[in-house]
């Protein structure tokens, strides 16, 4: 993936975070690149019952699936923090379930600090079902 596309994903994720419903004050945006080249964004949506809240990454994935996409190439995650933040454990498992090798681009809002890893690097020994678990 070229630098220009990565920067576009980071910018779209940074913009998507502004739509977050974040009682915590922690706004997160995600931009998910499908293997067909479409970009689907998402933001965190917090509820007063914390366990019912949904993260930006899962919002983007669920939105993409509802649009007919199931093959993903990369996802950018951006928050209001000064340093890049990584997806939570639930989101890591979601990402691995769709594609262990999906590129996860974590950046600060300005896009000046970027960390890249695959989903399985973020979740070693991930559960992959049907005997496909990592050893």
What's the SSE blueprint?
Elements: H1 3-16, E1 28-34, E2 39-43, H2 56-66, E3 72-79, H3 89-98, E4 103-107, E5 114-118, H4 119-122
Parallel strand pairs: 3-4
Antiparallel strand pairs: 1-2, 1-3, 4-5
Determine the strand fraction and express it as a percent band: 15-25%
> How many angstroms separate the termini?
29 Å
Task: Work out the helix count.
Answer: 4
Shape: globular
Q: Percent helix among the residues?
A: 25-40%
- Report the average pLDDT across residues: 93
Low-pLDDT ranges: none
Largest sheet, in brief, is: 5 strands, mixed
The Cα radius of gyration reads 14 Å
Strand pairing plus helix content: what structural class? alpha+beta
H/E series = HEEHEHEEH
Tally of DSSP β-strands: 5
* Strands side by side in the biggest sheet: 2-1-3-4-5
Task: Give your account of this protein's structure.
- The chain has about 140 residues and is α+β, with helices and mostly antiparallel strands.
- It is built from four helices and five strands.
- The chain has helices spanning about 5-15, 55-65, 90-100, 120; strands at about 30-35, 40-45, 70-80, 105, 115-120.
- The chain has a five-stranded mixed sheet.
- The termini are far apart.
- The mean pLDDT is about 95.
Features:
135 residues; alpha+beta; 5-stranded mixed sheet; globular
Give a quick rundown of the structure.
This protein has four helices and five strands. It is an alpha+beta fold and 135 residues long.
